[in-house]
Amino acid sequence: MSMTAYQALVRRDLQLFFRDRRAVLMCFAAPILIGSFFGYLFGGSGVTDTAKIPVAVIDEDGSAISRRLAKGMAEDKTLELRTVTAAEARTQIQSGKLTVAAIIPKGFGDLSGKALFRGSDKPQILFLYDPSHSAELAMVRGMFTQHVMESVTAEAFGNNSTVLDDSLRDATQAKGMNPDDQKSLVGMLTSLQQWSGRAKASGGLGSAGLTMPYSVKEEAVTGKKGGQYNAYGHSFAGMGVQFILMMGMEAGLVLLLQRQGGIWRRMRAAPLSRATIVAARVSSATIDAVVILLVIFGFAWLVFGVKVEGSMPGFLLIAVAIGRPVARIPSGRWLQSTARTASTRTPARTGISEAPIWPASFGSAGRS
Amino acid sequence: MLEVSGLHKKYGDLVAVHEVSFRAEAGETVGLLGPNGAGKTTTVAMIAGLLPPDRGEVRIEGRAVRGDTDPLKRKLGLVPQDLALHPELSALANLALFGALYGMAGASLKREMGAALELVGLADRAKDRVGTFSGGMMRRLNLASALMHDPQILLLDEPTVGVDPQSRNAIFTNLEELKRRGKTLVYTTHYMEEAERLCDRIIIIDHGKVIANDRLEGVRRLVPGVNLIEIEIENPGANGWYDGLREVAGIETVEMEGPKLRVGMSDLNRTAPEVLDWIRAHGYRYTHLATQRADLETVFLTLTGRSVRNA
After folding, report:
1. What is the pLDDT of residues B41-86, one digit of tens each?
2. Are residues B277 and B155 both part of a single domain?
3. End-to-end CA distance of chain A
4. Which residue of A133, A148, A288, B289 lies most exposed, with the fewest beta carbons within 10 A?
5. B chain contacts of residue A8, beta-carbon cutoff 8 Å
6. What ipTM does this complex have?
7. Do B50 and A338 touch (CB under 8 A)?
8. Which of B169, B198, B220 is the last residue of a domain?
């Protein structure tokens, strides 16, 4: 390999790349701007709390159970509870300001307590929701279920509650029920009544009702154990890789133009091996890729505190891994060109065939 | 110096170059003439090692060129038909790159850059971006780029395409200087007047085949009536008054165009006096005489039945 020619070709590629203001702007400024924008959208840096879902609970009942339910929802850290009327809730969902609204109907407290043991005359809760946020609807329904069960059972087993007494009376007087089932239900309710009575007397579990049978601890898993999540790390990693690919496409187009201009003929006329030409192209594309990645992440580090918490050599290898297939696009086409006329060349084929390599290195960098 | 033997290239069913052979000696300029698509560029591409021939070989100083890295390729310089320059870079940066492709560096590279720019008259624009050059200046720099490694053989593929007459003359002057220095030039063109001015040997290619290969005078002799006398007659006779001239030995063509009688012949010294004698002897008087030689355009027309520009 002629080192003089190799160095000259690499230098030429770098000169052409850095003198092209459009390419430089696309490869440095654009990913920084877009990465900053998406990083901000995804939560920015130093975020510990998860985003809250804007929710409204409209209490048309006003019972002890419904008030307790609304209070429970308000205390949930994943929800941002708003106090609105049903009509206002509809308007806010239409305008995208509210995601889900739950309307607790009149008589909910009374009917829900009775339906707890009898399974009939269940009250209906109306959920209004934004169809573009159906996933949030499922989340809110789940939380609502938790709070309803806690509220209803707390009220049922609470002081001055008549739910158990009413349910025991109904079960004892029920007609047409299987005698064995009736006997079991009456026995269970009697036991519950006795347990509740003892709990009321001691001021213990009876007032709390049923509670979730587990506690929850949340831990965000990042590149470094205990490290703080930084959304800019993700957005800058994605933008960095994407714009390196764009740089490769730009380099490929430039080379196509060069070849149409006859430069490739001059290169092939020189006593150079194809390996020298390919190696020079790979090297310059790799240098471009590494510089792009360093500039983009340098900015992210300085401005947003993004850190590479994993392996720095591994991080740089990503640029090399991207740079190589990118560089092979034009070089592969150079090799083809010795046997084909311009009209038979297929610019997209080589690039597309190598495209599946690119996503392999996508997203690994920049986790913080 | 350069020997091309039986070069043959096919693209599918199309024979682009068919058994092309010729020699070019040191200091000689060989013109490859032919219309667009005749196979000139393909021939040059095979000589330069850009295309592998299906058959035949290229020998330089008696040795066949083998492979991409054969040092013999250093003896060749290619001036491609398309401008092979980076418009974003300066003239010096372009020359430095093309010199480096041949392993040149340091003082020798600097010296050759200066010499090449001096030869093509661009020394004062050395540091300017090539994108700011006129078309003619770019063509001259295109030529200079091929001279960086001081090749013995220069392959010029239509180096004056799209160039104004002034720049074309400048390029001709550069090429004549290179010829004077003993370089071998292989010059492809479809401009016959360029070939007539520059080339010692003419190879006419049509549809990939060599249809003429001789020195300029030899090629001219391929057409009948290579020498033409134009005689302005003061008192021409009735229609067909000159028919008797056809009986004169050595006369190949006779035709009347307005008051001018055009008589074609191969041997001017022997036949011209006899023509004038015949005219006087038959009572006609001439007021003006002029001679012409058949040009390459006429030669091409005669050999192929088509004009080179319409082929």
Report:
1. 999 999 999 899 999 999 999 999 888 889 999 999 999 988 889 9
2. no
3. 41
4. B289
5. 96-97, 100-101
6. 0.79
7. yes
8. B220
